[in-house]
Structure to design on (428 residues):
DNA sequence: TAGATTGTTAATCGATTAACAATC
DNA sequence: TAGATTGTTAATCGATTAACAATC
């Protein structure tokens, strides 16, 4: 595998999508596909698909195309999905609970080790067999456990403080659902899910389409 | 305002973020800001900020900068946030409920008119004063109500069918949380929130950082 | 007016697409 | 082998950044 350190984020964002399509093809017992056929399915140009994949090595074979099983495995490995990740969720409101459920049912490599909240009504509950702990215990918990990913489901005002604690506690990545931008050292990965921003873009396109109609 | 129909999506994705920062500045009673100061806050170059804003018109003033209140209002209007949107949520599991709560508390212009599910245990419940209706009634509901946005919180297998019904029912936009790609006419806006893909990118960057360390 | 800062054009940079030689 | 299709280089396209004249 080549040096991955300077591959553009545009490429990385497409990898999970390739993987989803390859997963479905695998389920259908298809065993090979050309960049051209994949292009028709997924909507990227065949040229882009070949360029993207060649960032990581030559996974195809001239005259044949790509073996679906092995390409799926390669992409999974590139993304690091052959590993396990221990996570904590901070903020156990509806969204925190939804994420806990989601990762519980769908994402086998991603384990929620604990959830934290300040609300006494939530502390002590078990959600999908995951204990909700007092936020006061976060520092101690981080000291006694190796946690890879911190998931921020708090409001925007608490988010930075929580992130600071999690980073001090040794997480390698932050999955942020709070509607704010976070400051953290750039050796810790950060992925934002800004639901507000997403909804606001949607509103823009709704109106743009309206204008086109009239 | 200029013709917005060919503004790149890179620009549009930045608008909600500008708006967030302007909102905070407004709260702090700051009344003007230069592209340079805003650049220091938000992290885009001053040049990009000026380019972005000038896609929609000259909102600044030479020698002065931008008036925060009025720029905030302009961006809100560009995004269509001066309007109301009626929404339905299909799929009332944890995620559907979280979205209902979220829009209920934070997003005053976005009203959830109804929620739908196939699960008899959920049908009839009220969540934040929003009724959970039988999915069987979706078509009829859409006939009798004007709904702007359909929110997909189903599993991936049901998503396309739901979208087809919503589009037939006249929605102008789809906010998709199901982990699949949807087909719809391009006069209907589509915004995807692919949580899987997001988590998978995070995993990639965690591993890339690990490699750099060693 | 002088200084500041925009609006806008030009230059650069990066990402996508096209083309084709290599090769299975 | 001949046909198909990749891997990779070159060309194009688009987005970002730099520069500066316009102007408040």
């Amino acid at each position: 595998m080549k040096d991955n350190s300077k591959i553009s984020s545009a490429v990385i964002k497409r990898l999970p999508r390739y993987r989803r399509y390859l997963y479905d093809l695998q389920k259908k017992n298809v065993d090979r596909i050309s960049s051209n056929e994949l292009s028709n399915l997924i909507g990227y140009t065949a040229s882009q698909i070949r360029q993207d994949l060649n960032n990581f090595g030559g996974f195809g074979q001239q005259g044949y195309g790509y073996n679906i099983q092995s390409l799926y495995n390669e992409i999974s490995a590139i993304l690091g999905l052959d590993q396990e990740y221990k996570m904590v969720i901070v903020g156990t409101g509806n969204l925190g609970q939804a994420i806990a459920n989601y990762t519980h049912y769908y994402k086998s490599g991603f384990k929620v080790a604990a959830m934290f909240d300040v609300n006494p009504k939530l502390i002590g509950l078990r959600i999908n067999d995951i204990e909700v702990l007092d936020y006061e215990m976060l520092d101690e918990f981080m000291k006694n456990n190796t946690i890879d990913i911190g998931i921020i489901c708090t409001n925007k005002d608490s988010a930075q403080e929580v992130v600071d604690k999690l980073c001090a506690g040794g997480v390698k990545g932050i999955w942020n659902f709070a509607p704010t931008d976070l400051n953290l050292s750039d050796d810790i990965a950060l992925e934002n899910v800004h639901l507000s921003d997403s909804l606001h873009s949607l509103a823009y396109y709704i109106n743009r389409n309206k204008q086109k109609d009239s």
Summary: The helical segments of chain B are 9-27, 35-42, 46-54, 68-79, 94-106, 138-144, 156-168, 195-213. Chain B has two domains: 4-77, 85-197.
